Amino acid sequence: MKHFLKETDLSPPEVAEVFALARDFKAKRGRHTPPVLANQTWALIFSKSSTRTRVSFEVGIHELGGNPMFLNRNDIQLDRGESIEDTAKVLSRFVHGLIVRTHDHSDVERIAAAGTVPVINALTDFLHPCQIYTDAFTMAERWVGPDGDLLGSLKGRKIAFLGDTACNMANSWILGAGLFGMKIALSGPPGFEPSAEFKAVAEAEGFSDVYEFTTDPFEAVRDADVVYTDVWVSMGKEEESQARIAQMSPYQVTADLFAAAKPDALFMHCLPAHPGEEVAQEVLDHDRCIIFDQAENRLHAQKAIMAVLAQQARA
Ligand code: CP
Ligand code: NVA
After folding, report:
1. Which residues have C-beta within 8 Å of that of residue 10, sequence separation ≥ 6?
2. 259: phi > 0 → left, psi -120 to 50 → alpha, else beta; which?
């Protein structure tokens, strides 16, 4: 069974198919979408808040002809001690796919191992792969040449990732950079380097040399094609809010910092944004800020990911 728990779970032909389908779904939205999830129900099990991920998956499943079912972790027996494995086995008897947002990354791995339907990681404390495929597609839309080669347009590009460089988005973007042939410079406070656990994953993928870490944000953005940031206080880290905001304030994406990247650099953020913390309002208002294209593309990219997984599950 094919799952999408981390960026590298799809083969190069599957990645190419996701990008081609995302482009096609976007171009034809509202006119023609093949009902690849007809007569199927896909359940979302969420243990954390969500605006974009929840809505884009629910709309996407509906547009592919399927039925979305949202299950808040608190509402099912999982929260009263039923095991992850039994939950995955039972739900697999009812639904055709599971989309899971949770804390421990090992939970999505356990669901995938115990269940018998495709599982999609909709964010864990460790990784957020749906966001990375979407972001890469969004960059490629801007950079693609007359040959139409979306993936080719990413190769050799540089991302600067600023702020909480030890969070799920930073980890995921390192895997994304390796997968898409890009480089990434991370810049955050001392102590926020990628974790030993993540470094082991990056090394196992052969991606140890795609990233570098510096405490100097201006060094990170030099020659960058994209300046990227995320919230300083990820879900689950609320108790550390004050300390994090104090430590990360030198890494705010200000207009000056953004201007130190390439002259045509894009500003990106997975959202939700906290203007005045990780990014200045001036940058959010910039004409090279493409955050709402990113948000929209969650729909198209995730429809493509579900289509590829559903096709594999039927095979
Ligand atoms: N970017 C993202 O995953 O947003 P939500 O938390 O709103 O789903
Ligand atoms: N790092 C953030 C991403 C939100 C989409 C979090 O985990 O809260």
Report:
1. 2, 4, 18, 305, 308
2. alpha
Domain, as residue range, for 75: 7-127+295-314
Beta-bridge partner residues of 85: none
- Check whether residue 139 and residue 229 sit in a common domain: yes
Ligand 1 atom 7: the closest Cα is on which residue? 51
pTM of the model: 0.98
Our count of domains for the chain comes to 2
Name the closest-CA residue to atom 1, ligand 1.
270
- Does the annotation count 286 as an active-site position? no
pLDDT by position in tens, the chain (length 315): 999 999 999 999 999 999 999 999 999 998 888 899 999 999 999 999 999 999 999 999 999 999 999 999 999 999 899 999 999 999 999 999 999 999 999 999 999 999 999 999 999 999 999 999 999 999 999 999 999 999 999 999 999 999 999 999 999 999 999 999 999 999 999 999 999 999 999 999 999 999 999 999 999 999 999 999 999 999 999 999 999 999 999 999 999 999 999 999 999 999 999 999 999 999 999 999 999 999 999 999 999 999 999 999 998
| C-alpha 251, offset from chain centre | 21
Query: Which atom of ligand 2 is nearest to 230's Cα?
Result: 1
224 lines ligand 2 (CB under 6 A): no
